[in-house]
Amino acid sequence: MKFNAFALAAAVGVVATPAFAQTVPAQTAPATAPAAPQVMVSAPMTAAPVPSVNIHAPASGRCGLFQTCANTRIGLGKGDFIVRLSALGVLPEDRDSSLSLNGAHLGGRVKTTRQVMPELTFEYFFTDNLSVDLIAASTRHEIAAEGVPGLGKVDVGSAWVLPPTVTFAWHFRPHKRFNPYVGVGATLAWFHNISPANNGLTQKVNIGVTGGPSVNVGFDYQVVGNWFFNFDVKQMFMRVHVWAQDSAETTKITAHDSLDPTVVGAGIEYRF
């Protein structure tokens, strides 16, 4: 009886041991369960940088001629090439003049009319601050002698002047929409298509080539895209020599005039 009781107890222990072993993992399994949420949280952190926004150009891949796009350069700087079309006002000052008749000094002064014409300018930037420009324009002016004793006003004639001017300018605010500048340069003026007044006194007129230094101030303002507005004032210093005589070449008038024109221009320009 004692042996049977011991055998029965041993059998119950053998059967109970596997059952207990199976219940232990079931109780400890929840301890490893939080690992799954850690994987789910880390996945969005690596995926966040994927979205991107393209702000450098429009959908067509090109910026319109009259558009300011994200890749449009602001202001002017090194390597820029400018073509400018302006309305140009040429205002001769006639600061100091003298007249002579057959070598004898006369009273009076030379008077030259003012004129407005279109102007074409080409400009290149060597650096962000330093540029060089060349203006191309031709204007027509009437020339007269005023205050001549016994004659009053004498029409001498008219002439076209071609004054190519090279200017080196220093720009104070490169890569800004508003960019003021100052410059120095030189002018060389040719007179062409000279027409005498044919008044009996001046039937032949000749005007010598002249030139001199110049200074200027102005500014560029970026309107839209690569389009800019320009305003410029130049002061040129040049002295002109004029000879006029009658058809018989018996009467010769010589005039010397400090023309010194002030040149004012305003126009639109494009950057290439």
Task: Note the gap between the termini.
Answer: 116 Å
Number of distinct helices: 2
Q: Which term fits the overall shape?
A: elongated
Contiguous uncertain segments of 5+ residues: 1-33, 39-56
Q: What do the pLDDT scores average to?
A: 80
H-E string? HHEEEEEEEEEEEEEEEE
Tally of DSSP β-strands: 16
Q: What amount of the residues lies in strands?
A: over 45%
Indicate the percent of residues in helices: 10-25%
Rg from alpha-carbon coordinates: 44 Å
Task: Describe the structure in your own words.
Strands 1-5-6-9-10-12-13-16 form an 8-stranded antiparallel beta barrel. Strands 3-2-15-14-11 form a 5-stranded antiparallel beta sheet, with no helix packed on it. Residues 1-33 and 39-56 have low confidence and may be disordered. The radius of gyration is 44 Å and the shape is elongated. It is built from 2 helices and 16 strands. A hairpin with a 2-residue loop joins strand 12 (210-224) and strand 13 (227-236). It has helices spanning 2-28, 35-47; strands at 81-91, 97-101, 104-106, 109-112, 115-125, 130-136, 139-148, 152-162, 165-171, 178-196, 204-207, 210-224, 227-236, 239-245, 252-258, 262-271. The termini are far apart.
Which features would summarize this protein structure in a list?
272 residues, mainly beta, 8-stranded antiparallel β-barrel, 5-stranded antiparallel beta sheet, 2 helices, 16 strands, 52% strand, elongated
